[in-house]
Design brief:
single chain, about 240 residues, alpha/beta
Length: about 240
């Protein structure tokens, strides 16, 4: 694989999507998804200047992070079980997959024990897919103020995983709805939220056009995932 060539192509596509929507490419942050990728691939990507990586599983991250440069930042982008919250708070600089009030309270507990403020994104299952985790849009609005009242939790925005489609244009309404929900949340909080994390390798251009500030790309940057190994084993 040629990560450098892939990265250049991705950056050109981001720039084009920003041009179409009147946005500055500098406001779009790339989260390089390393699920199933060994540490040496992460190190190769880091040598090209990438510094923010996303992992789906806490256990895989624990096995991998120590093998990578200490300067890298890691976000948890997959579903978080309550019994993994202590490790999640320790290893990640952001949890992008907060999907319930009980989970928020558990994160609060471990963040408080670590004397750490934990940035989070609230995951929203905009399309209501039964196979995916995440809040319904209505439930986000119902729980928002209580989550915001947890002193160690810092809500920085919203995240969603759009339904898979061979035609990215069909999921534009999902991204648009998340952007609208962010505005509703800001109105409730009386303060701006920094991030909309939306868009993956198959649909990120549409997400950028609809206001994404973070896109989570795996195969578009790193190529096909490597076979599962010690650092890529499921928890």
């Amino acid at each position: 694989m040629d990560i450098a060539a892939n990265l250049e192509t991705v950056r050109q596509r981001i720039a084009a999507a920003c041009a179409r929507s009147g946005r500055d490419p500098s406001v779009v942050t790339l989260v390089t998804v390393t699920k199933g990728q060994p540490a040496d691939i992460v190190c190769s990507a880091a040598q090209l200047g990438l510094s923010l990586f996303g992992e789906n599983r806490v256990q895989e991250a624990k096995a991998k992070i120590g093998l990578c440069p200490a300067r890298l930042q890691w976000h948890l982008i997959g579903h978080l079980q309550s019994n993994k919250c202590r490790d999640a708070v320790h290893f990640f600089s952001m949890i992008q997959s907060l999907d319930s009030l009980p989970l928020a309270r558990e994160i609060q507990k471990w963040a408080d024990q670590s004397a750490k403020t934990m940035p989070v994104l609230i995951e929203v299952n905009v399309a209501g897919e039964s196979s995916k985790f995440g809040y319904s849009p209505e439930k986000v609005l119902a729980d928002l103020m209580e989550i915001n009242g947890l002193p160690r939790i810092e809500i920085q925005g919203l995240m969603t995983v759009a339904p898979y489609s061979r035609q990215p244009e069909t999921v534009r309404p999902v991204f648009r709805r998340l952007r609208e929900l962010k505005k509703q949340c800001e109105d409730l909080l009386g303060a701006p939220l920094l991030h909309l994390s939306m868009g993956m390798s198959g649909d990120f251009e549409v997400a950028v056009e609809e206001g994404a500030t973070m896109i989570r790309l795996g195969s578009a940057v790193l190529g096909t995932r490597a076979p599962a190994g010690p650092a890529a084993a499921a928890p």
